[in-house]
Amino acid sequence: MKKETAGQKDLFEVLDFMEELDITYWLDGGWGVDVLIGRQTREHRDVDINFDSRHTDGLLDALLAAGYVIETDWRPVRIELHHPERGYLDIHPFVLSKDGTAKQADLEGGWYEFEADYFGRAVFAGREIPCISAKGQEIFHAGYEPREVDLHDMKIIEELLKNES
């Protein structure tokens, strides 16, 4: 069995934390892409988590009590936190619907709406992890000027989508 990297350790600590709080969530961003492909392909600055917005206050209380500090507060769109040992965590509240779809507030006061098949699961390092699907990742990586890490992730997403068809 491969040795867990420091980044994977931080990732698993965040996932454990979310599961201990019993909050519905999905891994997103660069780690979400790496989980979909089944291996870590690059270093990650943060862990991106999309979660059930009904738990925003409770999640923030728990994160602050665990030593995280809010760095960026764009509620209700996203909140970025930092922990001196665990690094950055970027959380995104989603309003979940019973049919499996979801929506997220945008900065202009509207909503992004997401199809049910954007939300899935993948196995990474022997652990099943709720994560945004390749189809969802493709949409989430659109509409902004990509950085080098985004271009890296988009190449992987393209490969994953090609293998799905």
Tell me the total number of β-strands: 9
Task: Quote the CATH topology.
Answer: Beta Polymerase, domain 2
Strand content: 25-35%
Number of helices: 5
Task: Give the name of the CATH architecture.
Answer: 2-Layer Sandwich
- SSE-based structural type: alpha+beta
CATH secondary-structure class: Alpha Beta
Number of domains: 1
The stretches of 5 or more residues where confidence is low (pLDDT under 50) are none
Mean pLDDT: 95
Q: Give helix and strand order, one letter per element, not per position.
A: HEHEHEEEEEEEHH
What does the radius of gyration come to?
A: 15 Å
From the spread of the alpha carbons, the general shape counts as globular
Distance between the termini: 31 Å
Helix content: 25-40%
What can be said about the biggest beta sheet? 7 strands, mixed
What brief labels describe this structure?
globular; Beta Polymerase, domain 2; alpha+beta; 165 residues; seven-stranded mixed sheet
Description of the molecule:
With 165 residues, the chain is an alpha+beta fold. It has a single domain, classed as 2-Layer Sandwich (Beta Polymerase, domain 2). 35% of the residues lie in helices and 32% in strands. The protein is built from five helices and nine strands, in the order αβαβαβββββββαα. Strands 1, 2, 3, 4, 5, 6 and 7 form a seven-stranded mixed β-sheet that branches. A two-stranded antiparallel ribbon has the order 8-9. A hairpin with a 5-residue loop joins β6 and β7. The longest helix is centred in the C-terminal third of the chain and has 17 residues. The chain is globular and about 45 Å long. The chain starts with 5 loop residues before the first helix and ends with a helix. The mean pLDDT is 95.
